[in-house]
Each structure stands twice: as structure tokens, then as C-alpha cells.
Design brief:
alpha/beta, TIM Barrel, eight-stranded mixed beta barrel, 48% helix, 21% strand, binds guanosine-5'-monophosphate, binds manganese (II) ion, binds sodium ion, Diguanylate cyclase (GGDEF) domain-containing protein
Amino acid sequence: LVLENRLHTALERNELGVRYQPLLHLHRSRISGVEALICWRYPDGESISPERFIPLAEETGLIEPIGEWVLTRACRQNHHWQQQGLPPQRMAVNVSVRQFFHPGFFDMVCRVLENTGLAPKWLALELTESMLMQDVEQARKLLADLRQLGVKVVIDDFGTGYSSLSYLKRFPVDGLKIDQSFIEGIPRDHGDTALTAAIIAMGHALGLEVIAEGVERLEQYRFLKEKGCDRIQGYLFHPPLTAEECTGLLMEHR
Ligand code: G
Ligand code: G
Ligand code: MN
Ligand code: NA
């Protein structure tokens, strides 16, 4: 309850922030895309993980204002980078289940893009399989509407949900992000290693872009590159950065 009360005022007290973690394009060996990650820091400096407060925000309905705030912040930042003449990046933003199925979600996305001036193709929404499976028909319709608008859609934490191949074929999405629990096991865990290779091959067979997250070691990087993974994300390259740090990095790599 204490956390809930604090979350209510976190937005207005400016305690929420957004970090940006760059992705690396494996074929071109350059930065390609950024994921927006929400963070919350109390005035005393203590930080609270989104794994704790996002579920709370979902329960209390605070996810709607918080979700719109993150999306606005991320789209505005991305548009700002483009106006500074930096190479255009795709900005990925995480969406949680209640937010996605909220009746006003699609209109909210349109409104944010319009207000920030960001072209839809530079926004990617990250959704999880288990989320989409909660209401398959509604999800399919929403995904189709979003893609019609030009927004990209990526399935996050891929491999941890239902992973039904037939559903994957039926969901109109642009890419898959392999869950970091699989990447962690490369190369010593044969199951994780084989599954990662299989997901990459399967994703490509379906015409999808495949992203790996949680890349921390060189051997993982080499394996993913050899298997033809398209983009990677992880501490081996860049941790989540502040907007200023990320701006600096994009300037260096322009
Ligand atoms: O940044 P970190 O690794 O601590 O994120 C933990 C979890 O919180 C991840 O599952 C991530 O997808 C989720 N998350 C991070 N930022 C957001 C956000 O802006 N909205 C939602 N819904 N989830 C987020
Ligand atoms: O569920 P989602 O993919 O949105 O969550 C991404 C989370 O993973 C973020 O909280 C981010 O901080 C974290 N993350 C990013 N890179 C790495 C990494 O290399 N290793 C680990 N353990 N976590 C990472
Ligand atoms: Mn994500
Ligand atoms: Na993930």
C-alpha cells in the first residue's frame, strides 16, 4: 500500500524517468534502434524495479497515465534526435497487457505520434506472447491496426510464453526478441543453444526480424552472429543509458 501511494505521486513529483538501451545491428555492426526502459527513483536515491511497480500500476489502473507518459517521452526523444540530424533510430517501447487491451490504446498511440511529430515507422511496440494469447482475436485486430498505421510490432521475451508456432504465423508482427534466459545459456546449455538457433531459423523462415537480448559475453555474440541473428542488445555493448549519454553515443556513431 505504501508503494501504491508513492506510485500515485511519482509522476507529478518527477520521480519517473526513461533510460535508453541501444541495439546493435549484427550485419552492419552499428547501432540500430533503442529500447526505452522506465525507471523510478525516490528522492532519497533508492530505485524501484519496473518488475515491482509495473504490476502494481496494472492493478491500480495507473498504467494508463504512466504508459502514455513513457510513450510520449520516448517518441519525443526520438524525434528530437532526428531533428538534431542523428541517424534515425527505431524506438522500442514496452507495453503491458492492461494497457494494450484498454479501449483507448490505439487512439492514444495515434495521439502521441501526432503530438510528438514522430513518423510511425520509427516506433516499435514490444508485446509479450502471453499478453497476445489473453484475447487472440482482439490482439490480432489491434496488431493489424497498428501495422496499418506503420508502427512496428515485436514479440518480447519470446520463448517464455505459449510459443505456439501456429499462433505466431497468425499474429501480424515484424519481429521476435528471444528471451534473455535462452541467451544466458549459450553455449554451455545445449537446450538453450539449440533453441536459440531454432528460433532464429524459424523467425527468418516466417519473414521476421530476430533480436537477442541479454547479450553479456563475446561467445554469445559470436554464436548469434554466426546463426544470422539480426540485432542484439545487452551489457556487452551498452547498458541502459540516460538520454544525455545516449545522445552522446549517437553523435559519436553518426
Ligand atoms: O529495465 P528492466 O530490465 O529492469 O525492466 C524490467 C521489466 O520491466 C522488463 O520486463 C521490461 O519489459 C519492463 N519494462 C521496462 N520499461 C517498461 C515500460 O515502460 N512499460 C512497461 N509496461 N514495462 C516496462
Ligand atoms: O522484458 P524486457 O526485454 O523489456 O526487459 C529488458 C530488461 O533487460 C531491462 O530491464 C534491461 O535493463 C535488462 N537488460 C538489458 N541488457 C541486459 C543484459 O545484458 N543482461 C541482463 N541480465 N539484463 C539486461
Ligand atoms: Mn522489452
Ligand atoms: Na524481453
